[in-house]
Amino acid sequence: MNKFTTLSGIAAPLPMVNVDTDAIIPKQFLKTIERTGLGKYLFNDLRFTPEGTEKPEFVLNQEPYRKAVVLVAKENFGCGSSREHAPWALMDFGIHAVIAPSFADIFYNNCFKNGILPVTLPKEAVETLLKAAAEKKEITVDLPNQRVVCDNKTYSFDVEPFRKHCLINGLDDIGLTLEHEKNIAAYEKEQKGKQPWLYAT
Amino acid sequence: MSKPRTLFEKIWGSHIVQRNDDGTCILYIDRHLVHEVTSPQAFEGLRLAQRKVRRPDATLAVADHNVPTSHDRLKGITDPESRNQVDTLEKNVKEFGIEYFGMKDKRQGIVHVIGPEQGMTQPGMTIVCGDSHTSTHGAFGALAFGIGTSEVEHVLATQTLLQRPAKNMRITVDGELAVGVTAKDIVLAIIGKIGTAGGTGYVMEYAGSAIRKLSMEGRMTVCNMSIEAGARAGLIAPDETTFAYLKGRPLAPQGADWDKAVAYWKTLPSDAGATYDKEIVLAAKDIAPQVTWGTNPEAVAPITGVVPNPEEISDEGRKDFIKRALEYMGLKPGTKLTDVTIDKVFIGSCTNSRIEDLREVAKIAKGRKVAANVYAMIVPGSGLVKEQAEKEGLDKIFIESGFDWREAGCSMCLAMNADKLQPGERCASTSNRNFEGRQGRGGRTHLMSPAMAAAAAVTGKLTDVRELVAKPVTPAKAGV
Q1: Are B160 and A184 inside 8 Å of each other by CB?
Q2: Given A17, A31, A178, which is nearest B66 (Cβ)?
Q3: Cys-Cys crosslink for B17: which of B26, B125, B130, B423, Cβ 3.0 to 4.6 Å?
């Protein structure tokens, strides 16, 4: 997995609530069997007309946001489907951090599995960052110190220690879990004794 | 006496393989459902790391999202990308030794319909699938939730997930539902009350006499849409209704195991005095048939209501959302919902494609005709649901009324196959999401119950199904 430590750059403002994963990556692009190559379809229906031409009013079609590395949005970002194609599309486009007042659970979780940092900040802080992003100011997201810096202001954020550890070190959590294979086998043995029907198929 | 525990706490507690210092747990997963859209990259990951599937016996795969629902589908899938995804799943299940229901198998269907139908879904289990509507299985008192593809790979390789406990909410619905009001109306009313993020971070347990009275099909509809309130999972305590549904199903416990399992299942309901982080209460009698007017499931109103006016909303984010939603939906504030005409009807999806849903549709359809301006499709949740409906003669009622009776799959719930709305088309749909473009780019979705969708099909507009229930037709007076 890609590591995430600190990131500085252009942040694209997307001042919308309830941005769902169907909007982030519409269903017709879920037919791939790869993880890569989805960046060109990120926010497809918001970004392009049905004929495929750019909609100039959409933020990612404007300079300097074509090179955005951070996205700033409103409440409940990433709601809906569990499709991991949503963080894959963000990553492939070049967005490595999303800042919002709240996230949907599955999307939030999927981000960490792909080297993307979702940052939850209070609504007022996000409003300030949306303005700064609209003014094309750079934003720094510093995971080791758990802070966002922009326009000489610093905002602290919370992140679960284990997720932080995995992200900073780019760890494969399957490998980590398999270090405890003995405990999994012991659990299975005990469960099979108590609930044999779970192993009858 | 130990501390009283909730259903969620009991299931969670009995599946912890290991608890780390920071509270992250390795949680054991009892059953894993796999479909073609969210699994190819997970299997590829296993191959690259030279890992095996830990418990093929606890894993079941099916193709549902991409499959055509036309009657000639056994000729093959025309769309090359869809075909490749289904072929890839077939190759992967062979390589990793996983049971698979292919298109030719009458057990094929929507992943969240077939799990319960086969008796794979059982009380007290942990169940996952790379699909957000995995919450459906909570109807059996199983802790079931959707995961992303990386976690699909994690479960395939380790039969566990890294998780932290969720908060616990109880939603109590007491009393009698009015005639024409169903499980779908209950859950839409709940989402309307708490919002699409109201359940974020929670596992929601549904309780109360109105929930207890629901059939398993109704309970699945309620739990299915828990994710539309943002919840990690939905739960309903197992009871005699649950046991009766499961008994004798192919993957349910058999013989002596059955009695042992039932004895265990009876210990699962929340203890008296167990506490929740949040409580919500609704009265069943206050719930009218619901219909959505906007672009997420919380944008819902009783069918007797009107399209809301964004100018009356003070919260800026919400106001913008409603404005945008009305523009997308082509609706004006103040319009009576019953004045909205429709073009298409979709009856199906993991929310409402089970036999009971089809019986509800048949009750309304019988002796009536689909309106001339409407194309209405019915997509059963599985080949077995289809077979049962045909045994009961429901297919004849549907065809006679002018519905298109199709093969099983996810179909126009998310329009990954050929079934989709054209730009501007308005659809009465029994599915679960009305997001922009969900059923086809530019398509306009109104979510509702199967009975309400059937009512819309025969009148050609959003309709209060209670009016049709009150005025049953005889075949001699067919037509509207």
Answers
A1: yes
A2: A31
A3: B26
For residue A93, the domain's CATH number is: 3.20.19.10
Q: Does some domain include residue A10? A: yes
Q: In sequence order, what E strands does B140-271 have? A: 143-146, 160-163, 167-174, 202-207, 233-235
On whether ipTM exceeds 0.90, the answer is yes
Distances from the Cα of A60 to the Cα of A44, A93, B480, angstroms: 11, 10, 50
pLDDT of B142 over the 70 cut: yes
Does a structural domain hold residue A1? Answer: no
Chains A, B: CB pairs < 8 Å? 183
Q: DSSP character for B163?
A: E
The answer, yes or no, to whether residue B479 has pLDDT greater than 80, is no
Q: What is the mean pLDDT of residues B83-106?
A: 97
Burial status of residue B398 (CB atoms within 10 A of its CB: 0-12, 13-18, 19 or more): buried
Burial class of residue A131, CB neighbours in 10 A (0-12, 13-18, 19+): middle
Q: Which residues in chain B are contacts of A109 at CB distance < 8 A?
A: 147-148, 151
Q: Which of B39, B158, B167, B258 should be substituted to probe chain A, the one whose Cβ sees the most A Cβ atoms within 10 Å?
A: B158
Could you give the number of structural domains in chain A? 1
pLDDT single digits (tens) B357-375? 999 999 999 999 999 999 9
Give B-chain residues touching A75 at CB under 8 angstroms. 197, 317
Chain segment A138-166, per-residue pLDDT in tens? 999 999 999 999 999 999 999 999 999 99
Residue A53 has pLDDT above 70, yes or no: yes
Kindly tell me if the per-residue pLDDT of A60 is higher than 70: yes
What mean pLDDT comes out for the span A16-33?
Answer: 96
Is there a contact between B261 and B117 (Cβ–Cβ < 8 Å)?
A: no
- The answer to whether A192 faces chain B, any CB pair under 8 Å, is no
State both tokens at A27: 């269903």
CB nearest B132 (choices: A16, A50, A81): A81
Report pTM.
0.97
Q: A33–B88: do the CB atoms touch at under 8 Å?
A: yes
Tell me the backbone φ, ψ of residue B61, rounded to 5 degrees: -120, 150
Report residue B237 as tokens: 């305590």
> How do residues B299-347 score in pLDDT, each as one tens digit?
999 999 999 999 999 998 899 999 999 999 999 999 999 999 999 999 9
Taking the Cβ of residue A154 and every Cβ of chain B, the question of whether any pair is shorter than 8 Å is answered with no
Residue A200 lies in a domain: no
Can you tell me the mean pLDDT for B12-28? 95
Chain B residues with beta carbon closer than 8 angstroms to that of A78 = none
Contact yes or no for B230 and A28 at CB 8 A: no
Give pLDDT, residue B472. Answer: 67
CB B429 within 8 A of CB B412: yes
Residue A127 forms contact with B (CB below 8 Å): no
Nearest CA in chain B to A195: B261
d(CA A3, CA A5): 7
Give the pLDDT confidence of A104-125 residue by residue, as tens digits: 999 999 999 999 999 999 999 9
CB B107 within 8 A of CB B408: no
In this prediction, residue B22 carries a pLDDT of: 87
- B195 φ, ψ (degrees, to nearest 5): 90, 165
Q: Which of A16, A21, A28, A31 to mutate to test the interface with B (most CBs of B within 10 A)?
A: A31
Question: Does a structural domain hold residue A118?
Answer: yes
Structural domain span for residue A180 = 6-192
